[in-house]
Write a structure and sequence with these properties.
Helix content: 25-40%
Number of strands: 22
Number of helices: 18
Length: about 600
C-alpha cells in the first residue's frame, strides 16, 4: 500500500537553500552517504555480537555504483536496514529537523564553512546533486518487509512496499542536470579516495575495494614495526623523503584520540610544507585544515589525527572555543615534547644528526608555548662554528670564564653567515671567544627569547661591534694619535665616504686589527632581521635605510699614512681602506666596485 505525506517543516524550499549553502563542498554528499552506510554495517555487527541477530552476518561491505545512462549513483550496504516506520522516523522527522535547524541558523549569516554531519544533514546532502532520491531498504528484524521511499526535493514524500531479498539499504540518487560531473566514474573514484580511503568497512567501487579498513593508527604500537610506519608514510606521501621519526598517538581519556604524527625532513620553507596533517573522525576524512587542533608550531608535521571528539560542524571560531579541541592541542604538544626529550636522552649523537631538521619545530614551539619552552630548554641545542652541539646550560658553562662583560653579563656571540662574517668570527676566535651559528629563519626571534628567559645573558652578532666592544671590560686602550689627529682623521674619512648613513668614529683598536671596521649596531640589525620574518610591529624597519658604524682604527699604520699623505691621495687612500672593509663583507658591488678596482690600479702604479 502506498503512503504519501508531507514532511512536517515550516521552512519552505529547504533544498535549494541547502544546495546554495553547501555548494562549495558539494562533493561531501558521497562522504556522508557512504559514512551512513558504514554506520549501518557496524550497527549490524554489534547487534549480531550481542546475540540480537541469529541469521547469517555475511561479509559486511558498502558498494558504490554509477550508471551514466540511467543517471544514477547508488550506495548500497548490507547493514541493519529500516522498516517503513523507521524511515518515517529517521528520514522524515529527525534528519529533516536537523536540516531545518541548519537553514534557520545559517541562511542569513553567510557562514559556509560548516561540515554537515552535526545537523543530521548527512542524508539530505544527497539533494545537492540529485533532483530525486530513493531509498530501498529491508530491516534485519525477522519478518520485516522491504520499503521504497521517494522524495523529489520538495517536502512531499511517498513510501510503498518493495521487493528486496537481503537486509540492508540502497540509496539511489537520480542526478540533477547541473551535476553531470558526478556521473563520471573517475570523479567518483577521486572523491572516494579522498574521503573514504581508511573507512573501517570495505568500500567497493567498480568491483574493487578502494579503501584500507585497518590503517596502522587503529593498531597498538606494540603490533607495529618501523617498516610499518615508514610504509604507511609512503602510502600517505608517495613523493616525500622518509621521515626522521614519528609519534603514535593513542589516548581514550579525557578524550578519544588516535593517530600518527611524522617529523619530515623539512626545507627552509614554511608555506609549501603546510596542510600535510589530515583530520579524521572514526576513519572518515574530514579536512586537512587542522589549525587549532594541532599547535601552530607543529603545522609542518605530517600524518593523521583521528578523533570523534572534534566537532564536525566547525567554523574556525567554534573550533577554538571547543574544550575538547583545546585538550587535544595541549596533549599533542606534550607528546611531541616528551618524544623529543626521549630521543635526546636515549641517543644524544643520533639526536644531533637530525637537529638541523627539527630545530625549526623546537624553536618555534619554545617561542609560541611557555609549557613547551619549559620542556624543550633541556634538549634544545646550540651549534658553534666548529660544528659542536651544546644544551643551553652546557654552553653557558663553556663560555662562562671568558665571555663575561663588565656588568657581569654573559655575552653569547653568534654569526648568521659564517662565510660572509668570517673576518669577525676570526677576530672573535683570536680572543678565544666561542661563536654560535644562529642562521635559520627563526633565529632572529629565538635570540630575543633566550635573552628574555636567561638571567644576565645577552647575545651579540659578531659584526655588531668592533672586537673590543663586543664584550666590554674595564680596560682602556691607548691611542697613538693625539685628539687633534683623531679629529683630522675622522674628517678625512667622512669626506672620503660622503654618506650620512655611515657614522664615522676613530677608536684605538689593536694594530693587528683592520684599519677600518664596518658594523651595524645589534639593536638596528635585530629590528631589520625581524622585519624580514614578520616580526610584530617591526615591518616599518624594512623600509628604513641601513645605518652603519664605521670605526677607524687609530693605531693602524695605514691610518697614520693617511694623515701624513698630501693632496687627493689622502682621500683616495681613506676611501680605499673603507672600500676594502665593504668588500670584506660583500657590501661592494656595481659602480662602486668598478671604481674601487680602477682606484686600486692607480694607487699601485703611483710613485
Amino acid at each position: 500500500m502506498e503512503e504519501r505525506g508531507n514532511i512536517s517543516i515550516h521552512t519552505e524550499n529547504i533544498f535549494p537553500i541547502i544546495k546554495k549553502f553547501l555548494y562549495s563542498d558539494h562533493e561531501i554528499f558521497l562522504r556522508e552517504l557512504v559514512s551512513n552506510a558504514v554506520d549501518a554495517t557496524q550497527k549490524m555487527k554489534r547487534i549480531a555480537s550481542i546475540g540480537e541477530y541469529k541469521g547469517e552476518l555475511g561479509e559486511l561491505k558498502v558498494k558504490v555504483a554509477v550508471d551514466k545512462e540511467a543517471r544514477t549513483i547508488t550506495i548500497s550496504d548490507n547493514g541493519i536496514g529500516m522498516t517503513a516506520e523507521e524511515i518515517k522516523k529517521y528520514i522524515n522527522q529527525i534528519a529533516f529537523s536537523g536540516a531545518a535547524e541548519f537553514v534557520e541558523r545559517f541562511k542569513d549569516s553567510g557562514e559556509k564553512d560548516q561540515i554537515i554531519g552535526q545537523f543530521g544533514l548527512g542524508f539530505y546532502s544527497a539533494f545537492m546533486v540529485a533532483d530525486r532520491v530513493e531509498i530501498v531498504t529491508k530491516s534485519y528484524q525477522e519478518g520485516a518487509e522491504a520499503a521504497h521511499w521517494t522524495c523529489d526535493g520538495s517536502t512531499e514524500f511517498a513510501i510503498i512496499p518493495a521487493h528486496k531479498e537481503d537486509r540492508g539499504t540502497n540509496v539511489i540518487l537520480n542526478v540533477a542536470a547541473d551535476s553531470d560531473e558526478f556521473l563520471e566514474k573517475e570523479r567518483i573514484r577521486t572523491i572516494l579516495n579522498k574521503y573514504c580511503k581508511f573507512l573501517p568497512v570495505p568500500v567497493e567501487f567498480e568491483g574493487e575495494v578502494i579503501n584500507n579498513p585497518n590503517p596502522i593508527w587503529t593498531k597498538q604500537p606494540s603490533e607495529l614495526t618501523d617498516e610499518d610506519y615508514k610504509n604507511f608514510y609512503k602510502e600517505l606521501y608517495p613523493f616525500s623523503e622518509a621521515p626522521l621519526f614519528w609519534i603514535h598517538l593513542n589516548v581514550d581519556y579525557p578524550f578519544n584520540l588516535t593517530g600518527i604524527l611524522y617529523f619530515p625532513k623539512i626545507k627552509n620553507d614554511f608555506e609549501l610544507q603546510r596542510n600535510k596533517i589530515q583530520l579524521y573522525s572514526r576513519q572518515v576524512f574530514i579536512t586537512d585544515e587542522v589549525k587549532d587542533v594541532v599547535p601552530e608550531f607543529l603545522m609542518l608535521l605530517h600524518g593523521i589525527i583521528d578523533s570523534p571528539d572534534i566537532p564536525l560542524n566547525v567554523s574556525r571560531s567554534f573550533l577554538q572555543a571547543d574544550s575538547s579541541v583545546k585538550k587535544i592541542n595541549t596533549y599533542i604538544t606534550k607528546k611531541v615534547a616528551d618524544k623529543l626529550n626521549e630521543n635526546f636522552k636515549k641517543d644524544r649523537a643520533g639526536f644531533e644528526t637530525i637537529w638541523n631538521d627539527v630545530n625549526v619545530f623546537v624553536k618555534y614551539g619554545m617561542l609560541s608555548d611557555d609549557k613547551f619552552y619549559e620542556k624543550a630548554k633541556d634538549f634544545v641545542l646550540l651549534q658553534n662554528t666548529e660544528g659542536k652541539y651544546y644544551t643551553i646550560e652546557e654552553y653557558k658553562a663553556l663560555v662562562q670564564a671568558n665571555q663575561q662583560n663588565k656588568n657581569d653579563q654573559l655575552v653569547l656571540l653568534y654569526t648568521t653567515d659564517a662565510d660572509k662574517q668570517h673576518a669577525f668570527v676570526e677576530a672573535a676566535q683570536s680572543r678565544s671567544y666561542d661563536v654560535l651559528k644562529l642562521d635559520s629563519m627563526i633565529d632572529s626571534h629565538f635570540i630575543g627569547l633566550l635573552e628574555q628567559k636567561l638571567e644576565k645573558v645577552t647575545l651579540k652578532r659578531v659584526d655588531s661591534e668592533t672586537i673590543d666592544k663586543l664584550i666590554e671590560r674595564d680596560e682602556t686602550k691607548e691611542s697613538v694619535l693625539s685628539d687633534k689627529e683623531k679629529e683630522d682623521l675622522k674628517g678625512i674619512y667622512e669626506q672620503a665616504i660622503n654618506n650620512q648613513h655611515m657614522i664615522v668614529e676613530v677608536a684605538p683598536l689593536s694594530p693587528d686589527d683592520a684599519p677600518v671596521v664596518i658594523t651595524m649596531p645589534e639593536f638596528m640589525r635585530r629590528m631589520k632581521d625581524m622585519s624580514k620574518t614578520g616580526g610584530g610591529g617591526m615591518m616599518f624597519m624594512g623600509d628604513m635605510p641601513d645605518t652603519y658604524n664605521v670605526t677607524v682604527n687609530a693605531n693602524h699604520p695605514l691610518n697614520q699614512r693617511v694623515l701624513n699623505t698630501e693632496g687627493e691621495t689622502k682621500t683616495a687612500v681613506a676611501r680605499q681602506a673603507f672600500d676594502l672593509a665593504l668588500l670584506s663583507q660583500n657590501m661592494l658591488s656595481g659602480a662602486a666596485l668598478t671604481t674601487f678596482v680602477k682606484r686600486s690600479f692607480e694607487l699601485m702604479t703611483k710613485e
